[in-house]
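A favour, since you know our structure tokens better than I do. It will help me judge whether the discrete encoding reads sensibly. The space below this message is yours for that.
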Amino acid sequence: MVVSGLPERNGDRHADEIAKMALDLLAAVKQVVIPHMPKERLQLRAGIHTGPCVAGIVGHKMPRYCLFGDTAN
């Protein structure tokens, strides 16, 4: 899962940045060769959801950066 505009706001560029990233990932996946299955290709699908979310670090022993809110669920 990825998010745009955190921790620093990026104005109204959220959808543009996420869409470009998704297209870059799709292009990168086409270049992957699986050594033990060279005729097979990785497959990737991307979905984009928009809306507010809250981010924070959760945990003491194993801190993780987490996203919360209806958009992230």
Notes: Residues 14-68 form one domain.
